[in-house]
Design a protein that fits this description.
Elements: H1 22-29, H2 37-58, H3 63-79, H4 93-106, H5 125-128, H6 132-136, H7 147-173, H8 177-188, H9 199-206, H10 210-232, H11 239-254
Helix pairs in contact: 1-2, 2-3, 2-7, 7-8, 7-10, 7-11, 8-9, 8-10, 9-10
Length: 255
Amino acid sequence: MTFRRLPSSNLPPGTGRFETTAWTVVLNAKDPNTTEFSQSLDYLVQNYWKPVYLFIRSKGKNHEKAKDLTQEFFALFLEKNFLKSVDREKGRFRTFLLTAVSRFLMNAHARSQALKRGGGLRPLQSLDALKDEEVGTGYEPAQGETPEDAFNRNWAQALLERVFERLREVCAKEGKELYYEVLRRQFFETGKDGRRPSYKDIGDSLGLSEVDVTNYLHRAKKIYKDLLRDEISTYVCSEEDVEEEIRDLWRSLSA
């Protein structure tokens, strides 16, 4: 089963697997004269700022400097047309973005008058609106982790967060809020002993039998897996790439 992508202010125009993808967004964003330009770039920033920020942090930059450089990277991405030579056949969008921010940092020393956040560039609301604690909390590089590993790990975490939010939206729209709630409690809640709640605990808290909890979990996980594949399909080019990206996703999270 394939679920239609729900309308969202974070998404560019269009729906469907491999129709609107991050590469499609990039191609739209290459031409500032298109109507999709601002919306497409906002989509890229809102979905991908976290891995970029953590990558920069992992290069030894403190929170404030990393935040400034993240803002500058996306502002230049916006104004200086980093995308003019993009070719989707050159590889995955994740790889393209990592290469772009790596080159940006290598060239940073050549900019003697480093741009301040928003200075002379169009402000990016998706970064400016974030509170400092929201940007900094939970995005510390792990001990001994390479910048590239940090980027990939945070990419995976941000992806799973987006998918879980989409699960909530899909379940709410279809009147299946309990599917989402059962899965949320099993994944994210712990008891005083630090253990996940049992099916009985979840059922008691929601007025469900253990059989109901089992069935709801099974269905919710199926929806989640379908949404995960759909989300990954927005930044790869084929079903084969989806499978490879899923394997990379779990490797990044288990490292």
